[in-house]
Amino acid sequence: MSTLFLNATSAMSADATALSRITNGDPIAITFFIGYMAMLASAVFFFFERGSVDPKWKISLLVSGLITGIAAVHYYYMRDFYLATGQSPTAFRYVDWTLTVPLMCVEFYLLTKPFGAKSSTLFKLIIGSLAMLIFGFIGETSGIDNNIMWGVLSTLGYLYIVYEVFAGDIARLTKESNSPALANAMFLLKIFITLGWSIYPIGYMVLPGNLLSGMFEVSSIDLFYNVADAINKIGFGLVIYSVAIAETAKAKKA
Asked: Which CATH number characterizes residue 172's domain?
């Protein structure tokens, strides 16, 4: 009985210590908490709004809901890990990215599929995103000796995605679509790709032994990542939603 009481007391003490990170204004803990709630609310919104768009756009909103839903689950566990240990949940984060970033690339394909996108384009985007993530994870977890090399390889995957959006198949199909809604959406997604996603390689490069080592506190990387994740994943979904609504309205008037 006394053992149970001691275990319960210890658990309550650990919970109180963890929650104090939030109540005392730890910005990283706060962004983990806000990120979890924002991702969850966004997932619910996208799932419910599937009923308000044309059938050919339902999969796009489904994917948006999956991206934010998967992120919400991971942020729930990342939040608890950080509150309990005070350390960066690197493994959890890369599992999240490995699932959600390829899905974000799927969104580019789904946006342009009604205008002629081919499955080969989707395949190339997914390969580029996986290369970016796998090489990045190896670089973050293998020590400082080779992290610049792995970072360069990871960046090549990222640059290929940028190429596809700005000058490759995605850019060509957007131009040929003659859809103002798609053109506006792609303009916003280009901003996410170049500015929003750039936070990730910058965060990688401030690690010890890397190109920007010492420029920022390594402990603040999670703060940047959390803000970037919320903006990019929720923002991606809202852009997709805006196109789906606009194209649905156009189809009803036709």
From this structure: 1.20.1070.10
